[in-house]
Design brief:
The protein has 297 residues and is of the alpha/beta class. It has 2 domains: 166 residues, P-loop containing nucleotide triphosphate hydrolases (Rossmann fold, 3-Layer(aba) Sandwich); 104 residues, GMP Synthetase, Chain A, domain 3. Helix content is 33%, strand content 23%. Strands 2-3-1-4-5-6 form a 6-stranded mixed β-sheet, sandwiched between helices. A 3-stranded mixed β-sheet has the order 7-8-9. The two termini are 38 Å apart. About 2% of the residues have low confidence. One of its GO terms (biological process) is ribosomal small subunit assembly. Pfam families: KH_2 (PF07650), MMR_HSR1 (PF01926). Belongs to the TRAFAC class TrmE-Era-EngA-EngB-Septin-like GTPase superfamily. Era GTPase family.
């Protein structure tokens, strides 16, 4: 049986389940998950190798309709850049929903020449299943999708079918990575993702969008990993909110993040965190490049 290898971009609006799908496919949490926009800020690649195929997935930031600062404009451009030189695209939408941001994501696909598969996610949450068929007919009319797949990333419904059609879509060829690889992301980048996930989960609705995580030190020994992480905020008043009363909020963020990192690196983790003011970092190209959000294209 000939080997197959190809790249697949996962695209869609925020909070439709892109990161959940990638983590499920890879079998590890390499992309942050939270029920808030902008949880994913970089193009994160996950590698799935089974039987005779290797699929290299890219989890893109959710496409935002309102891009008011350099950070959001960069997230949109990086998501679109991930569509270049791929073999297939998976667009994800939420069952029974179609928003303006879904329309914007679809608009980005108009020039794409490769097969585009529509994954209708979260079908397990639909109580009245008879509503699905009219919805699927409606979205089918919006674009010449190669196939529309009703699915659930959390309940693993129809994920095998997704892999089946993607394997058929990618070309024959040697694998780009060894069979044990799950990502090409540096470990410290994934650690920053997992810390930022806890910022998003633990803080108020707006504050996480003005925070970033920079790993200043990552040292690994035979027995444990030591990590020094700096949490950037855009305004002085935000420092106290993140630290919390008697440092309780920062401690909770650190404890939850440490557990996630330990699960990923499979070692005890010593995590130290500092909160630092970096005014207007989300409009500073140098800071965005330092954080790995803006590429050097």
């Amino acid at each position: 049986m000939n080997k197959r290898c190809g790249s697949v971009s996962i695209i869609g609006r925020p909070n439709v389940g892109k990161s959940t799908l990638l983590n499920l496919l890879v079998g590890y949490k390499i992309s942050a998950i939270a029920n808030k926009p902008q949880t994913t800020r970089t193009n994160i690649r996950g590698i799935v190798t089974k039987d005779n195929y290797q699929l290299i997935f890219t989890d893109t930031p959710g496409i935002h309709q309102q891009a008011k600062n350099l950070l959001n404009m960069t997230l949109n451009s990086e998501a679109v850049a991930a569509l270049e030189s791929v073999d297939a695209v998976v667009m994800i939408v939420e069952a029974l929903k179609w928003t303006d941001e879904d329309e914007l994501a679809l608009k980005r696909l108009k020039h794409i020449k490769v097969p585009v598969f529509l994954l209708v996610n979260k079908v397990d949450r639909v109580q009245q299943k008879e509503r699905l068929f009219p919805y699927l007919e409606k979205v089918a009319a919006k674009y010449d999708f190669k196939e529309i797949i009703p699915a659930s990333a959390t309940s693993e419904i129809n994920i095998d079918r997704l892999l089946e059609v993607l394997v058929e879509a990618v070309p024959e060829g040697e694998w780009s990575y060894d069979e044990d690889s799950i990502t090409d992301q540096p470990v410290r980048s994934i650690c920053a993702e997992l810390i930022r996930e806890q910022l998003v989960l633990n803080l108020h609705q707006e504050l996480p969008y003005f925070t970033a995580v920079n790993i200043e030190r990552y040292e690994e020994t035979d027995r444990h990993v030591e990590i020094d992480a700096v949490l950037w905020v855009a305004r002085e008043s935000q420092k106290g909110i993140i630290i919390g009363k008697k440092g309780e909020t920062l401690k909770r963020i650190g404890t939850d993040a440490r557990r996630s990192i330990e699960e990923f690196v499979d070692k005890k983790v010593v995590l130290k965190q500092w909160v630092k003011l970096e005014e207007d970092w989300h409009n500073n190209p140098r800071h965005l490049q330092e954080l790995g959000i803006m590429s050097n294209r």
